[in-house]
Every structure is written in C-alpha cells, then in structure tokens.
Amino acid sequence: MHVEGNTKMRNGRLVFTIVVSVSLFVSALAYPQQRERAAVELQQVVKLQEIQARHENLVLAVPGVVGIGIGLTEEGKGLAFIVYVEKLTAALKVQLPEHIEGVPVRLFESGIIKAY
Fold first, then answer.
1. Residue 52 lies in a domain
2. Which of 64, 100, 105, 116 is nearest to 85 (CA)?
3. Per the domain annotation, does 33 fall within a domain?
4. 79 and 48 in contact (C-beta within 8 Å)?
C-alpha cells in the first residue's frame, strides 16, 4: 500500500509538471515578453520537485499527513510546499517544519483523501 501511494505521488508530480509546462509554454507563445519569466518559473517548480522527492517520505511518515504537493504561499506571492493533513492539530503544527530547504510549508486540512 505504501509503495502504491509513492507511485501515485510520483505520477501526480509527473502530471503536475506536464500541466505546468504546457501552461507556461502556451503563455510564452501568447505573450513573448513572458518567455523568460515562464522559463524561470518552470525551473523553480522543477527545483521544488527535487526537494520534495528528497523529503516526502519523512513528511508522509508523520501520522495524520495524507499528502504533499507544490502550491502557492498563503499570500500567493511565491511557491510553497502544501502538506495535506487529515485534521490540523497543534501536535502536527509542532511536528512538521515551517520550511523545507528554505521553502515555506503550508499546512492544509484536507481530511482523508481517497482515490476513486
């Protein structure tokens, strides 16, 4: 079951990378002045995926954590790791880091996540 979950996380990261890549590519075609910015943003996402891959097993091993992904900070002005938890508790806030390799961590109470 744990191996299946890791495979799903890897597949999810692949789909996320493809969606972001296509979005940035289309944006760059529509707005040539944004090509450089799109390339930088894609590099940032790839870097965060590498960091996530190094740390996700430790994060997912914390009881109550159901997933981890890449999203925006609370302010929406930068990238962050989003850690999905069944129920956001004071104990989880203490157990989980505020940053992973300098990248902010946001906790999100998602409940139990089921694949259908």
1. yes
2. 64
3. yes
4. yes
